[in-house]
Amino acid sequence: MSDAAASRPPGSSTAELVDLLDLEPLEVNLFRGRNPPESWPFRTRVFGGQVLAQALVAAQRTVDIAAHSLHAYFLLAGDPAAPILYEVERVRDGRSFATRRTVAIQHGRPIFIMSVSFHREEPGLDHQLDLEGPVPAPQDVPGIHDLADSVLAGLPEPVRNYWLRPRPIELKPIGLGERHAVPRRRVWFRAAQALPDDPALHRAVLAYATDMTLLEATTVVHGTSVLGSRIQAASLDHALWLHRPFRADGWLLYVQDSPSASGARGLARGLIYDQAGRLVASVAQEGLIRPVGEAI
């Protein structure tokens, strides 16, 4: 194990995440996914990022070139007590591109659908939208357990409990607990322990992580959270574009914003950069952010 891996927090469940993403083949184009241990967060329903990542793994098992984009809809809340079946339709296999459609099924009903496009690597034009303004390096941002007690004490209990739970992804939110004047937030993240050298696995782990914090961008200017009791929240759809090679066990900066929230729905976007400033992925998601209880 490298020094960097050894310095990461214990009990991070990264090996369990790798195991979670190793789907069981049942038949041609049919796979079964397990759910995580009860100690993990999101146990009242299946975490959307888990279904997203497992569905991507299922699609990747049927093609020999790399995924470059996916577009998904969350249809029903997943049951954490039941396994999930993933059925892959081989829509198209071309010389440069391939397309797959994955349906996640529980109790005889589809709970999630996703289309994935794959592209054989080839040369082409290259540009990117660079980061705006200075960003603290990940080593200069305190981890959750390194935050001052005063910061943690100021967080609502559900939010504090969420951040303090062990998880397979290490998160370092910038300015956690601060009131934001604009709907933007930034989070450093990486797999909490080193991953095997399998690019397909790194893409699946990234997909998993993209659903962890993005919807918070829709509520941050309102002084509330999708994790609290005043908002009924759920991911409705999710899109991910993979631009350049990366490692999901190296620090990645998730720059998030929300251009609009209305009618109990919020739109969030994310740009993901590696430490060298390379834009490696882009994300978009619409979610339910329905006020409950007191008016906001």
UniProtKB/TrEMBL annotation:
Residues 37-119 form the Acyl-CoA thioesterase-like N-terminal HotDog domain. Pfam families: 4HBT_3, Acyl_CoA_thio. CDD domains: Thioesterase_II_repeat1, Thioesterase_II_repeat2. InterPro entries: Acyl-CoA_hotdog, Acyl_CoA_thio, HotDog_dom_sf, TesB_ACOT8-like_N, TesB_C. The keyword Ligase does not apply. The keyword Transcription regulation does not apply. Residues 182-288 form the Acyl-CoA thioesterase 2 C-terminal domain. Keywords: Hydrolase. Belongs to the C/M/P thioester hydrolase family. This is Acyl-CoA thioesterase II. It comes from Ancylobacter radicis. The lineage of its organism: Bacteria, Pseudomonadati, Pseudomonadota, Alphaproteobacteria, Hyphomicrobiales.
